[in-house]
Every structure is written in C-alpha cells, then in structure tokens.
Amino acid sequence: MQRKYLVTGGAGFIGTNCVARLLERGEEVVVYDNLSRAGGPRNLEWLRATYGADSFKVVVGDLRDAALLAAAARDADVIIHLAGQVAVTTSVLHPREDFEDNALGTFNVLEAARLSGKNPIVLYASTNKVYGGMEDVEIIEKENRYEYADLPYGMPETYPLDFHSPYGCSKGTGDQYARDYARIYGLPTVVFRQSTIYGPHQFGIEDQGWMAWLMIAALTGKPITIYGDGKQIRDMLYVEDLLGAYDAAVEKIADVAGQVFNLGGGPENTISIWREFGPALEGLMGREIPVTWDPDWRPGDQRVFVADIRKAQRQLGWAPKVSIQDGMKHLYDWIVENRALFS
Fold first, then answer.
1. What is the number of structural domains in the chain?
2. Percent of the chain's residues with pLDDT above 90
3. I need a surface site. Which of 87, 101, 121, 211 has the fewest CB within 10 A?
4. Spatial CA neighbour of 98 closest among 307, 342, 299
C-alpha cells in the first residue's frame, strides 16, 4: 500500500537516505527543509538526479513557520521528523535558536499532525543526550576506551532523563511532547533516542557527525582537534539500519504507538572516537594522521554511550545488520568518491 510521507529535514544526512529508501519502493514523499546546511542543496540535487526531478515534492520552509508546516502535513499518512538544530556546541552559543528549532519546531510538527485530522504516524528522532552526563553510572577506564562497569547491554530506556546542555533540553522537550501527544491526543507517535548515526550523504562538521567529519578532515588536510582523551565510546548505527527500525515501527504501529526506543549499534558496534577510530582510519588511508589534543572536554560529552537495544529487538523485531567495520568502509568510500564536495 502506497503511503504519503512528510520528511522534515529531508535534505539532511538521515533525511536524504530516508527519502531515497521511500522513493525506491514507490512511496509519495514531501520533503520539508530550510536548506540551511551546506550539504542540503547538494543532497537534493542527488535525489533529483537519481529519482527524477518530479519524483518528490520539496517545501522550503522553517520549523517555526507553523502555518506552512501544517499545510505540508495536511495529507501525510506518516511524518518522519528529522529536522532541527543538531549540535551541542551550537546550542550553548545560541540557546534561543536551538530552542526554537528543536522544542518549538517539534511542537509545531505535532500540532500539524494533530490538526490534519488524519491521525498520521509521527516518528521523532530524539537523542541519547536526553540522558545527560550520567554521572552516577560507574565507568571503567581502559587503555584505549571507557566502558560501563555494570551495564553489559548498554543504557536502557528506563534510565532517568537529565537534559544536560540547551540541546539536551530542547531535544528532550520534543521527546516528551511526542510521548504525551500519544497519551493525550491518541496521536500514534514513536520516539527514537538515537546514538551515533553514520553513512553516505553525511556532510559531517566538527560539532556533529564526528566520524564523517574526521574522515573528511583527514582526506582534505583540515586540522583535527581531539577533545578530552579520545577514549570516549560511542555505539555506531549505520543509517540503513536506522531506517529499518523506522519501517518496522510504521508496520507495527498498533503495538508500539507511544513507545520510546533506544537505537544504536549496541555493544557489538562500539568504538572510541580516536584511540580506536584513529588507527582504523589510518589503516584505510595508509598513512598517519596528525592531530591536536585539547584536554578540555566539551559540554555534555559522555564518556560512554552504548544503547541497550533489546527493547527494539523484542518489540520491533529489529537488529543492526551492518557491522561497524563494513559501515566505516562504506562511509569512507563515499567520501573518497565525492571528495570534490568537501574541498
């Protein structure tokens, strides 16, 4: 059955991969994006070149424009809400803009869905940052990485929320609004607290999309600064695996509406951001990569985040399929192939 999808942030990294997946199987797609990031127009060009200029509709608009957003959402069966401000450091410098993009923007998406009268499915891309610094979780320091002392499966959805940083506050506000719109209005929402997502079409910058950024910087000779000690651990989820979870939620919406899921690569797909990733990248490139070390940790930087994905496995019938080794190679090859875009 063909569905009508609205993808906010559809010209972004996850959005582009999402739109491509939907078009591949013949869904009707509206992209809502303000095209504020450098890679957005390039991603739209790629989508049009690959699938045809008329294969999807684009609405260039801001999440703060409630009326335009409501018009774009009027006929949607499914809304995948990916748009917003994405960097902790930017939120610290510009907290009002961060609030308006993420908290107010998500409220506007939910209101657009409610007012459409179609009761569309709404999938919300939240973040692991809603758990804050997790200072009470015991961490073990090893030679090249940190690890949880007592969480062998990773961080569960039941861990208390602690909105650290303006970004954590704004994304957490959207997270809780999405949950409550399912309770109060019966809107079939699903919240995904996402760990580090990576893959093709990711125009990473220093403040967001760290794996892509480090690859791009190393390949183009940009200076690289490692903050903290480089042992910070992230569980990496390849973008196609993320989108598989989205599809599963849509298909199982009768059972999972109103639910929250931690999504990441899980314990099998972890890597430290430089002590382990650095040598792996040097192996791909065949040379050493010079870096500068800054001992100051950035705000909200978690020493470890690994998602406990067992709830998603149980309720969605989902699990990551792409190993971190294969995913890194896919991303690296895409950046090499498109190197001219990053010069």
1. 1
2. 92
3. 87
4. 299
Report in angstroms the alpha-carbon separations of 54 from 15, 18, 254, 338. Answer: 18, 17, 33, 24
Q: What is the pTM of this model?
A: 0.96
Q: Which residues are catalytic?
A: 167
pLDDT of res. 1: 80
The DSSP secondary structure of 215-257, one letter per residue, reads HHHHHHT---EEETTS--EEEEEEHHHHHHHHHHHHHTHHHHT
The beta-strand segments (E) located in 39-138 are 57-60, 78-81, 121-127
310: its two tokens:
């067992």
Q: Which residues pair with 17 in a beta bridge?
A: none
Q: What's the pLDDT tens digit per position in 114-132?
A: 999 999 999 999 999 999 9
Region 163-185: mean pLDDT is: 96
Please state, in angstroms and rounded to a whole number, the distance separating the CA atoms of residues 1 and 93. Answer: 45
* Integer Cα distance of 62 and 261 in angstroms: 27
Give residue 158's pLDDT band: very low, low, confident or very high (50, 70, 90). very high
Distance in angstroms (rounded) separating the CA atoms of residues 50 and 95: 37
> Where in the chain does DSSP place strands (E)?
4-8, 28-33, 57-60, 78-81, 121-127, 139-141, 146-148, 189-194, 196-198, 225-227, 233-238, 260-263, 270-272, 292-294, 304-305
Which residues in 127-150 are b (16+ Cβ under 10 Å) and which e?
bbbbbbbbeebebeeeebbbbbee
pLDDT per residue as tens digits for the range 211-253: 999 999 999 999 999 999 999 999 999 999 999 999 999 999 9
Distance CA 7, CA 184 (A): 24
CATH code (residue 330): 3.40.50.720
Confidence of residue 29 (pLDDT cuts 50, 70, 90): very high
Closest to 202 in 3D by CA, of 239, 173, 166: 239
Give the CA diameter of the chain. Answer: 58
